[in-house]
Amino acid sequence: MSLILIIEQTLNGIQFGVMLFLMAAGLTLIFGVMGVINLAHGSLYMIGAFAAAAVAGATGSFLLALAASLVVAAIAGALIELTVMRRLYDRDHLDQVLATFALILIFSEGTRWAFGSFPLFLDIPDALSGPITLPFGVQYPLYRLAIIGIGLVVALGLFALISRTRIGMQIRAGESDREMIGALGVNISVLYTLVFALGAALAGFAGALIGAIQSVQVGMGEPVLILAFVVVVIGGIGSIKGALVGALLVGLTDTLGRFLLPSFFGLFMEPSSAMSVGSSLSSMSIYILMAAVLLFKPTGLYGSA
Amino acid sequence: MKLKTILMAASVAALAHTAQAEGVKVGMITTLSGGGAGLGIDVRDGFMLAIAQSGSTDIEVVIEDDQRKPDVAVQLADRMIQSDKVDILTGIIWSNLAMAVVPSATAQGKFYLSPNAGPSPLAGAGCHPNYFNVAWQNDNLHEAAGAYSNDAGYSNTFILAPNYPAGQDALTGFKRFFEGALAGEIYTKLGQTDYAAEIAQIRASGADSVFFFLPGGMGISFLKQYADSGVDLPLVGPAFSFDQGILQAVGDAALGVMNTSQWNKDIDNAANAAFVTSFQAEYGRLPSLYASQGFDTANLLLSAMAVADVNDADAFRAALEAANFDSVRGDFAFASNHHPIQDIYVREVIKEGDVYTNRIVATGLTDHSNAYVAECSM
Amino acid sequence: MQREQLINATTLLALLAVPLWAWYVDEPFTITLATKVAIFALAGVGLNLALGLGGLVSFGHAAFFGIGGYAMGILASHAQTYTPLASWPFLLEGTKSMPVIWLVAMVMSGLAALAVGALSLRTTGVYFIMITLAFGQMFFYFAISWPAYGGEDGLSIYVRNGFPGLNTLDPIQFFMLCYVLLAVVLFFFARLAKSPFGMALNAARQNDERVQTVGITPYRLRLVAFVISGAVTGLAGALFADLNRFVSPTMLSWQTSGEIMVFIILGGVGRLYGPVIGAGLFIMLEHFLGGLSEFWHVYLGVLLLLVVLFARGGLIGLLAGKEVAHD
Fold this sequence. Notes:
The structure holds 3 protein chains of 3 kinds.
Chain A: H1 3-34, H2 41-59, H3 62-83, H4 93-115, E1 131-134, E2 138-141, H5 142-164, H6 166-176, H7 178-183, H8 188-211, H9 221-235, H10 240-266, H11 271-296
Antiparallel strand pairs in A: 1-2
Chain B: H1 3-9, H2 11-15, E1 24-30, H3 37-54, E2 59-65, H4 70-82, E3 88-90, H5 95-107, E4 111-114, H6 120-123, E5 131-133, H7 140-151, E6 156-162, H8 165-177, E7 181-188, H9 196-205, E8 209-212, H10 217-229, E9 235-238, H11 244-250, E10 258-261, H12 270-283, H13 289-307, H14 313-322, E11 333-334, E12 340-352, E13 355-368
Parallel strand pairs in B: 1-2, 1-3, 3-4, 4-5, 6-7, 6-8, 8-9, 9-10
Antiparallel strand pairs in B: 10-12, 11-12, 12-13
Helix pairs in contact in B: 3-13, 4-5, 7-8, 10-11, 13-14
Chain C: H1 2-24, H2 28-53, H3 61-81, H4 98-120, H5 125-145, E1 155-156, H6 171-194, H7 196-206, H8 208-213, H9 218-244, E2 246-247, H10 254-267, H11 274-292, H12 296-310, H13 314-320
Antiparallel strand pairs in C: 1-2
Helix pairs in contact in C: 1-2, 1-6, 2-6, 2-9, 2-10, 2-11, 3-4, 3-9, 4-9, 6-7, 7-9, 10-11, 10-13, 11-12
């Protein structure tokens, strides 16, 4: 097991984590401000990817495709907020879960209705394709490095937005005391729509970025959604910082577990059963991580009780 | 309707079928909604094209969507057998659904013609006189990939597949024919979409080639990421990741990849040429592997109907075993466990104009049967 | 309350009358559908104990449903091949007897619920939803990648398991078995809701602190409810596997968890008979909408959304009026 391989796998883990962060940040923000759980967040991820694929197919421009993913997902998010979510703020979480579960059904089959049953094509731009050589002779795809970079920029941007701007102040106020913020004269319904659209745009953006190296297909959002839940649980609900740390932890655990566990069992088992035990265990590794965090901190690493 | 023009074009083949036979009721359970719907739609369209071309009036097809859920498939089968009183079942795409439906359907005396899934238990100890697979035994295409890897001179290959029974069958099938060494062997998570970790291991392994079985969206993801990783070892895989339906979503990343298949649109025989033209005319897209399997399944059924009554199970079974139909694959026969004996080709992904497709470059295995014949006692 | 009891009685009678009629006119598939309704209703009634009475929105009940299914699959497949489950520390044989399978299914899914609940119940609200969902996924991935019992292919049983004195292969007899189990569980849960335990659980849902001040630990209360809930859902899983003579990881998928919740909301949250009506409605929708269009999930989604937004008491709430809604 060479140093190069370990460096490359660590980068892979970070890249995976950064992508999860984009999803989890929106979820945790929406929950923090409005107190709602949104299962349809994965559908927004899918909508972003489909919008990007459609625009890239029509124009050939990846930048336009990314812009489209942001805009379309934000609009879809705002629509969801205006038509469905705002009726649910005062309801219990069960109603929110079921309403957004219904949205998943509608969006998934609706997308298939509109785009057909076959996956769509979305490719990385020429300028970012291929690998580059990093120190220690590590070969790494430029596009994945770009995702890491973009993700970190988005993270910084979110921190700045929340700690430095007026909207951020309102978001923080909303998180700590929802009634108070209304009394201060902030237009809550506009704020809520904005936050929901922002979270949706982040999910759509993640979908477009990842769609370029994966398959753009119906149902692509839900596996990511569930991982994003794990991230939010580990990081603590409502905390952007927690989402970042949680996402990186999950990304690294999953990636490193996938290649270290089978080799570990290979030390004292025959190869085929080591492979099978190792891969069974590694598919559960992040849930075990989650359980471990919960044992010590039931509200997550950065969550407040 | 466009169907009429096709009927005229292909009526020569159809004339043979209109002769006689009792009315036959076919129940098709296939995946028409959700993630894997593309495959089921192709099987259905291929099957129905053949039925329409036959002009046969004494066949009725009931089509239902299994949503890729085994429990739904089981209940549809129950309904078709109990209420619709079908004679023949067909259509299932996925091995796990076939395992749920086939044993009980054949035990109730129904015929099952598989247009796709060929799990090893149904070929071996669990084989049944009323079960026929018209596509392949699951291991077949992987075995051909192993044979091709020998022919191509690879001696140290890296193999990967998802961690589920069909994935385990795939790697077993490949290893059964591959004579070189393995640089690495990985089982990935089913439904996994990011392969960075696996590609890193491939890069570090010192392999001279890669064999992979990752059907559907998994294959699209892997190919795109592999092409972008800078690892340029030759890839070999079964046709499932290079099918007409998904190639367009992979794009340039698939160009030049070698894959094994029992069918391609350029196989040179009259039945195939007519099939490709008429499918394109009817549905406005190129037929896929799955469409060809659906088409062959219907023609096998029609050929048996032409000579035997479905109520006479023994005669009908014998008529099916004879496989007296013009397969779009060319030569086609059944082994004693009712799985195909056929040539398996090696195809290369190419671009024709704007469309990504395959062309045959070699034959991987000739008159290939399957490894489970001896385990099947019938 | 009167009107709701009338609706409940009608529901239970209808669920009995339809298959009997189908049996009379020889429509076995309708009996199969009714059996499916009874089994799904049982799963929903199980979840409803945690969800309606306890306020625990578990999005991972498919895990217990699936564990019940696998209990049946594993025991029956060993009995089918005459291989023991384990020969050490003591000989453990498979079985094809339903009562034994049911017991094992309930114990195993109850134990799983104990483990999941012990961890998850340390949290509340949205945390609880996400954690149960994640644990459900953990069981799902384990079932898929564990090769011993078929992995993703699942396990097929060639002959339905037996029950002393009955021919379970006969659809109507198997239906009656499921129906009686459902009725027994409904009776038991009706008693439970009125017992001190049920009252305390209900009180803890409405006001956690007040219950603590009278010296009851809500955590333990909820854990017990969660375990009973998981065990009943596991029993439904064993029956469902027997209905299909097949078990696979699909039973453990998060969509299954979602569907069990859908039964409850369609019928009416916190109402004992809610899942029974909800499951009936769901199966009818699946049967009729599914025949109309391959995109029937869109219609189902819209309907569900409308129920959640505008008909909060579900179908029972619409019929019986709002005054008895749980909150």
